[in-house]
Every structure is written in structure tokens, then in C-alpha cells.
Predict the structure.
Amino acid sequence: MDKIDDIRKLGRNGATVASIARDTGVSEPTVRKYLREPDLSERPPAVGRAPESPLLEPFAGLIDSWLLEDRRCWFKQRHTAKRVYDRLVGEKGFEGSYTTVQRYVRRRREELAAELDAREAQGFLLLDWLPGECQVDFGQADFRVRGVVTRGHFLVVTFPHSNVGLAQVFWGETAECVCQGLRDVFEFLGGVPLRAVFDNATEVGRRVGTEIRTSAIFRRFAAHYGLDYSFTNPYSGNEKGSVENKVGALRRNLFVPVPQVWDVKAYNGRLLDACLGLSDGKPHYRRGIPESELFEADRAALSPLPAAPFACVTWITRKCDKQGSFKAGGEHRYSAGPANASREVAVAMGAFDVTVVGAGGGVVAEYPREWGDAPTDSADPTLQLRLLAIRPGGWRDSVVRGSLPEELVSFLDSEAPADLGADLRALRDVSARRGWAATVEGALRSLGATGGVDSATLELAAARAAAGDASVEYDEPVDLAGYDRAFELLEGGAASA
């Protein structure tokens, strides 16, 4: 208080703000604050509240936003007090102490937790949902994709009137994934919901105060299908209890044990039927009527589908490097081929695929879309194969060599340059007609049957592979008990005869 008294005395004597700041050793904003303060009466103590630092006050709102956003993060990736302090210093030039930040973070965490408990104690709002209205949110689950366990994301569209929920699996949560999942659900149902309510964290958009900000692709999607939509308020779980409950229910009933997935698009087609199957004969949790019967009212309320489906892709342009490759969707590298080296290409980013279009408007290449933060390179072997067939000297370091099975690589490595060039040209020509996967399978069959990869045998073997005579991979183990029983009956009949 002595310093405050000095400031006010100097002010009464006509000293300038700058001179008072120099004489008292405080900042000019602090001088102005105490010169303008109308009431210096002692404030009631804040019980249980750590004293605030004037240096921290300007950053309190920012820290609160970080702590609130932490609720959506995995617990191992939330801000510690040390991380909050480091960010304030590094990003905002904060000059206070770590202890001050630590006290504030501890107190605010306790207060925010108490607020959350109070909201949850109120229970979910029993909102009145009309038939044909839906809620949309994402959940996560592990899937065994071609033998490798992968953390996936499943979009859930639930109809609160009937409590029926439908899911689609993706490897990301982008706006393209949301639009693709909604399109697949709409087409499965044969109509468009009257209204969709999205979680505020969904990538198609979010509510910021009273303002709704949506992504460009979703605005087009909603206009295309005539879909009315809204977003929940941030941190208002009571507004979306139906979809959050359905996320957990679908995960427990359909994704335990960990599903095996070979073709996610085919899996998604079967998944929609499986979701509906969960509601067959199941009574609604409040109405007591079977969910499948209530769902008929949901379906009857749907609007008709438009004449053409919406292309759920985001178009971007990329400048290729000297090898004809570019990055898109993070640290993921795709190839447009040597012919597009140092040229600009158009790229369609979809939920599952990446399509590259050249200057003439034709499709140059298509790839499965890569996800995650780790860098990847999705170079198409057939693109490099065209150049490699002309210059086989680059075989040893080529993408083509790295994409072939070991036994085929060993054979081609052992060949003389002339024979290697001939076989590479055969692979190039057959892959252009039969596709890369069928050509590789045909080359393996040719090698096993003849000990070589001559063009005639390769063409025949690749044609058979492309026709679908390869072994079938099933998403779920096949139960052969029925066949065993049939053979037992046949053998028993033969013995009795």
C-alpha cells in the first residue's frame, strides 16, 4: 500500500504518468490503474483461491481455453503447469514466475472439474426429437487391417426418436470423412434427414459464441442434399446424450473382439446392416416400443435424395518436384509420374482415396489416402515402371523393386541386363491392361510354373488373376463345420450302401 500511496500523492501533485513510473519503479499501466481506482477499500479474501498476479491476469482467458480444450484430449496429452508456463513464455512473452502459473493452473483445474460435476448432476436434457432428425459424432476403435492393428474412427449417425444408430469406419475425422459417411448413410436409407445436429468438435464446422463456422466442402454438401444442420454448444454433453451413448453401444456390440478388415469400403457396406440388426426387437429405452418400429417413422420423414450423388472430395493444387511427386494431407508424398515433373497438378482429397489430375483434365494416378503424422511415400509402381522399362539401369534403386515380392525381386536381380529390360517391358505392358496387383500375382504364378517371366505366360496368368480366381480373403473366420457334417453324412451313406 505504501507504493500505491506514493503513486497517488505524486499524481495529486501534478506529476506525469511517465515520471511517476520512473520514480516508483512500476509500469505506466500500473500507475494509471491506481490513479483511476475509485475505491481502495480492502477486498474480502478469496477463500481457497491463490492470490492473482497482475502479470498473469492478461493471460487467464488463454490458459482457461487451453485447459478446456484439454478435456477433448487423451489424458497423456494434456497441458501440465510446466507446459502452460513454457507456452506463455515462448508464445506470449510472459515475464512472471512458474510458481504463479502452477498455482493458477491447479486452482482452475479444480474449479472446472467442479463445474463439470455440477452440469452432469443436472442430467441429460430430455429434448423432444422429431422423426427424421439425427445427431452426428465420432468414436474410436481398433481394427485389424490386413493383419495390422490400426486405431480407426467411426462416424455415428443416430436418430434419437427411435434410438437407431448407424456407423461408418474411417481412418481420419476430416470433413471429407464426415461427408462421405453421411452420403453412405443417406443412400443406405434412401433419403435425407430433416436436420442433423453435430458435435462442436466435428471437422465440418463449429460454434464460436453465436457464430457458426463451417468448412467449404460441408457447405456444398448441405446445399446439395438440402440438409438443415446445427451444432451443439461447446462442452454441453447434455445436448448430445443420444449419440454419445450410441457411440459406446456400437463399439461394445460391433467392434468387440477387434474386427478384421481387408476392404474398408466393403466392410462399411456390411456394417450398416449390422447396425440395423441391433435394433430388431429391441424395445426403446423410454417408450417401450421396438426401435425398429419407431425407425419406420424416421424413414418416412426423410427427404428424397438428389438426382446425383455428391463428390465428397476437397480439391487442391500442388506443384510437383523434379521427380514428379508432391505432398498432400500432411507429410504424405504422392507421385504424379515423371511426365509431370515441375508441373502443377490438381488433387482430389477424399475419405479413402487421393486422385491426381493433370493439365489436360485426365486422371494421372489414384492412391489410397494416407493418414497420421509419420511421413509416407505412395509412389505408384506402374508410373515409374514406364520409365524403368526404357532405362533399366535404375532397377536396383527403384520404387518398383521395393514393391515386388522377395522371390520375384531375387529372380529379376539375377537376370542379365537385356533379359531384365525385356521382363520389365512385359510387366509394363501387362500392368497397363490388367492392373498392377493382377500383374504381380501373374508374375509369381509364371515364375512358379515356368521358372521365368516371359510375356505370354505372364499375360495369361495376370488375366486369370484379374478375373478373380485368386484366393478369397474373408473379414471374419469361415465356419466349415457345416461342410464337415456334410462329408460325414456322405461317407456314412457310402458305407451303408
